[in-house]
Amino acid sequence: MDSSNGNNASAAARNICAALGEDAVADRMSRDWFKRFREGDISLEDRPRSGRPLESDIERLKVLIEDNPRLTTRE
Predict the structure, then answer these.
(1) pLDDT averaged over consecutive 10-residue blocks of the chain (75 residues)?
(2) Torsion of CA 22, 25, 27, 29, to 10 degrees
(3) What is the DSSP letter of 48?
(4) Are 34 and 27 in contact (CB under 8 A)?
(5) Could you tell me if 26 and 34 are in contact, meaning their C-beta atoms sit under 8 angstroms apart?
(6) Backbone phi, then psi, for 3, in 5-degree steps?
(7) Judging by beta carbons within 10 Å of its beta carbon (0-12, 13-18, 19+), is residue 37 exposed, middle or buried?
(8) 72 in helix, strand or coil?
(9) CA distances (Å), origin 57, targets 43, 53, 61, 65, 73
(10) Where are the alpha helices (DSSP H) in 1-75?
(11) How far is CA 69 from the centre of its chain?
(12) pTM of the model
C-alpha cells in the first residue's frame, strides 16, 4: 500500500479484497497500516500491546508440558 501517491486506506482495502477475497483485510486494518506508514513505520512486525504478555505464557506452558506431557488445560 502506498499512502504517498494519493490513494486512501479504504480504496486500498477494497482493492486488496477484490484481488484476494472479501475478507482479506478489514477497512480498519488498512487505515491502521496507512497511519503507521505515514509515521514512517514500514515494519510488518506487530507493535507491542498492553495487557498480559502472551510470549511468557507460551514459554511457561512449554516448560509445563515438557515436564509432564500428560498435563491437560484443565489442570
Answers:
(1) 62 91 90 90 79 71 83 64
(2) 170
(3) P
(4) no
(5) no
(6) -80, -5
(7) middle
(8) coil
(9) 25, 7, 6, 12, 13
(10) 9-20, 27-38, 54-67
(11) 30
(12) 0.50
